[in-house]
From TrEMBL:
Key words of the record: Hydrolase
GO cellular component terms attached to this protein's record: mitochondrion
Biological process (GO), any one: oxaloacetate metabolic process
UniProt keyword Hydrolase, yes or no: yes
Domain of life (superkingdom): Eukaryota
Classification lineage: Eukaryota, Metazoa, Ecdysozoa, Arthropoda, Hexapoda
EC identifiers of the protein: 3.5.1.3
Annotated CN hydrolase domain residues: 3-249
Reaction(s) catalysed (UniProt annotation): 2-oxoglutaramate + H2O = 2-oxoglutarate + NH4(+); 2-oxosuccinamate + H2O = oxaloacetate + NH4(+)
Pfam family, one: CN_hydrolase
Protein name (record): omega-amidase
Length: 277
């Protein structure tokens, strides 16, 4: 089985209802017209990325409005839906959480963002995530056919060890829904995607919202897919669009055979202890 992935770079507006309708319409197009079997939405796709708006759209998983809409879309169109992320309310705490829905509408994976971001290259703090969210503490994977897929959210992309853990688990594709501002995106977006793919000899997908110059945090856009050689195989503009890529899974064995870095790792040296010289 091959993976045909569609990254939905949608424009987020100040209406949960409109964002959900737009997302469902684009999922339909990605499946029916683009023939994707994995569809990905951006981080916090159902509300603008500000503390007030995110608080207002918090919901429980899997019973909330957004979850029901994604479940129905996955079932109606027979496709895996990686639901970007939403604000999850659970036991009095909030999490930045990605849900994944199978073609039968079932919840097949839930991932709570592990690395919370309190930094902004532009110098403008939009959301201090450690004040709003509780960090997750678990990895999350799911499979499409024989392909195992690992999940991260935005800031997670900066942590090489995190991605390598997924590769060690057998993941061949890493998916990161993300909201990245323009100054950060211009310097690091492409570089990070290539690094995570090349380091781990895996496919990597970053999915951003479309750029909105009136937003408090202006998303960078340019959702992209990188192959295990570190080459960009598809990339969006900054506008709302669907990016589709066929993942040639046979490239995985080729690159891993020709550059066998995972067989050459010196794990006996990497677990440093405090005070080692």
């Amino acid at each position: 089985m091959t993976i045909k992935i569609a990254l939905i770079q949608l424009r987020v507006v100040d209406s949960k209802e409109k964002n959900l309708k737009n997302a469902i319409d684009l999922i339909r197009i990605a499946k029916k017209e683009k023939e994707a079997n994995v569809v990905v939405l951006p981080e916090c796709f159902n509300a603008p990325y500000t503390a007030d708006t995110l608080l207002n759209v918090a919901e429980e998983i899997p019973t909330g409005e957004t979850c029901r809409a994604l479940s129905n879309a996955a079932r109606d169109y027979g496709v895996h839906v990686v639901g970007g992320s939403i604000v999850e309310s659970f036991s009095g705490r909030l999490y930045n959480t990605c849900t994944v829905w199978g073609p039968e509408g079932d919840l097949v994976a839930t991932y709570r963002k592990v690395h919370l971001c309190d930094s902004s290259l532009s110098g403008k703090m939009t959301v201090a995530e450690t004040k709003l969210f509780t960090a997750g503490s678990k990895y999350a994977t799911f499979t499409v056919g024989e392909t195992r897929i690992g999940l991260g959210i935005c800031w997670d992309m900066r942590f090489a060890e995190f991605a390598t853990a997924y590769r060690t688990m057998g993941c061949d594709l890493l998916i990161y829904p993300a909201v990245c501002d323009v100054p950060t995106g211009e310097q690091h977006w492409e570089l990070l995607a290539k690094a995570r793919a090349l380091d781990n000899q895996a496919f990597v997908a970053f999915c951003s919202p479309a750029r909105d110059t009136h937003a408090k945090l202006i998303p960078y856009g340019h959702s992209l897919v990188v192959d295990p050689w570190g080459r960009i195989i598809q990339r969006a503009t900054e506008f709302q669009e669907i990016v589709v890529a066929d993942l040639l899974l046979k490239e995985l064995s080729d690159v891993r055979k020709r550059i066998p870095v995972f067989e050459q790792k010196r794990n006996d040296l990497y677990d440093l202890k405090v005070g080692c010289s």
